[in-house]
From TrEMBL:
<dbReference type="Pfam" id="PF05378">
    <property type="entry name" value="Hydant_A_N"/>
</dbReference>
<dbReference type="Pfam" id="PF19278">
    <property type="entry name" value="Hydant_A_C"/>
</dbReference>
<feature type="domain" description="Hydantoinase/oxoprolinase N-terminal">
    <location>
        <begin position="2"/>
        <end position="153"/>
    </location>
</feature>
<dbReference type="GO" id="GO:0006749">
    <property type="term" value="P:glutathione metabolic process"/>
</dbReference>
<dbReference type="Pfam" id="PF01968">
    <property type="entry name" value="Hydantoinase_A"/>
</dbReference>
<dbReference type="GO" id="GO:0005829">
    <property type="term" value="C:cytosol"/>
</dbReference>
<dbReference type="InterPro" id="IPR045079">
    <property type="entry name" value="Oxoprolinase-like"/>
</dbReference>
<dbReference type="InterPro" id="IPR049517">
    <property type="entry name" value="ACX-like_C"/>
</dbReference>
<dbReference type="InterPro" id="IPR002821">
    <property type="entry name" value="Hydantoinase_A"/>
</dbReference>
<feature type="domain" description="Acetophenone carboxylase-like C-terminal">
    <location>
        <begin position="473"/>
        <end position="643"/>
    </location>
</feature>
<dbReference type="GO" id="GO:0017168">
    <property type="term" value="F:5-oxoprolinase (ATP-hydrolyzing) activity"/>
</dbReference>
<dbReference type="InterPro" id="IPR008040">
    <property type="entry name" value="Hydant_A_N"/>
</dbReference>
<feature type="domain" description="Hydantoinase A/oxoprolinase">
    <location>
        <begin position="174"/>
        <end position="461"/>
    </location>
</feature>
<protein>
    <submittedName>
        <fullName>N-methylhydantoinase A</fullName>
    </submittedName>
</protein>
Amino acid sequence: MRVTKVPSTPSDPMLAVMNGVRRAEIDLADVSLFSHGTTVATNALITRNFPAAAMVTTKGFRDVIEIRDGTKDDLWDAYNDVTGPYIRRRDRFEVSERVDYAGNVVTPLDEDEARRLAALLRKRGVTTVAVCFINSYANAENEIRMRKILEEELPDATVSTSAEILPEIFEHDRFNTAVSNAVLAPLVSGYVNRLAEELNSGGYAGDLLLLHSGGGSMTPRMVKRYPVRLAASGIAAGAIAAKHVAQQCGYEDAVGLDMGGTSTDIALVSGGELRITKEWQVEYGHPIVFPSIEVLTIGAGGGSLAHIDIAGSLRNGPQSAGADPGPACYNTGGSQPTNCDANVVLNRLGTSLAGGAKTLDRSLSQEAVNRVIAGPLGMSEEEAAYAILQVANANMADAVRLISIRRGYDPRDFALIAFGGAGALHGADVARELNIPTVVVPSNPGVTSAMGCLLVDIRHDLSAMYTALASDADAEDLEEQFRTLEADATARLRHEGVAEEDSVLQRVISMRYQGQWRSLAVPMGSGKGALEEAVQTFHQQHDREFAFRQDDQPVEIYQLQLSAIGKTPKPSFVPARELMADPGAPVSERPVYFGPDGWIPTPVYDRSALPPGATFIGPAIIEQLDSTTVVPPRTTAEIDEWLNIRIHLTDFKNEQEATS
């Protein structure tokens, strides 16, 4: 395994990717698989830096994506409103057409009106269009005709239709997913195609694989059709890697803590599986309804800014110094204290990063902490820096509680997988807040998410509405519907170059008790008796999820789903056979501040020199190219056979609570 890390290039993310390849001295002609997780789509939705886009909808439904579902992220804050739609009202247009709930065409598309609208869009310079007709999930005839007219009149524009993107009933979810797909199409496909061309010109002969939010990957050919699937690409990679590391170490239950420069992504692994959700968004109120690994993201990262609010309280994030100007210690224009600066002041972080590629100025961190926090609050320099970290750790611990305790999981039964550029600095302290007994720091925490990209297969998720009582459903009709989905799935995998022997199709059926709104998805087999088995599985899963079942209540089929998987090569990991308990001599020693314990002379180890099996008692600092690990007092640590650092807490924040 070869690891390298380079600075991000916000103006053109592709440059950083190619810089990493060059820094690692990789000959692309020798590469058999290139997999990439990207935040290009996520950042585009956050910054709303979109190309000229338009939405075309049924007359009377122009404002569906603005009315939304009436909810708010903070119900009690009258001044905190939901952000506006991705496409403004003046760019949303109506045409005459109508399909009823059963799929019957009540009003054919007015083609003259459609062509006049296309001429207006051409005049406005629109480059991407979302076509969102009401009830198109039941019959997409009018949407397809509208798309063809737009493609004739606007040959250079990208057109996304809601029934193709998401053939589901709820129009707000379907419209918004299609709109997100449309605004991302030129940006994401352009970036992906440029990267693929750059790799090919460098000698790479295979397909570039892009990790998508559902935990699979797709080629640039499919990204062009479904760019919205990359909206949580980089985030999903970290969750997949956390699951892999947890299973390596024998933990079926784990929390992934991926702390980067701007944010922290938290994922839950329960029973060896990641949670999957179809209800997620980059911004509240703008749902993207594709299966996605459930990850909770908060504004806590190495670059998160510490500040004092108008009430005089210390706050941390969500504002961030970013890569430019960066923390104060970078000496690149940043003047506000960050978590990175606090770690530098406390000597938890050294003054040299990325193998000497980045030098940090401790005096600038000290000045920022004293000026912004210590002075106004009447604290000493080290007390202020430690308080900054305490607030950051409390924010992350609260987020872990949301994704665990709120769902009925006790974090004390879990291991914490801490990674990302800053995760290993904070992991043990966050675990102590939650009384989690063990922290696992992967062998290369700063690039663990990149490893996650190599652990997935090509994957597509398809669905079709199918509403009927399970007792009345026609088994042959149900089988025919699944076969239609399978034909589409097989075509997609073939389009991506997946061999037939590497293709796997998995059926899923969503059901609910008659009268319910929400549904549960359960595996669906094939052949005689498959539906009856699925109904029994539904009863069992409903009991597990909601603590009750109603076997005498009619069960209604809501939706058919299909996962199409194309197997890809995976890296092999071999555990060390020889273990050595002696960690050897530290490379240096420096005083490090540990809160109530004060300044403690702390050994500093070079992680690359630590043998598997090495054990030591905290405190200790372990430095490496891509991250720094803090092993605080009252902990023990070991290097396991997979070269992970396992930190075992020997006390907890509240001993009585931990043993109750």
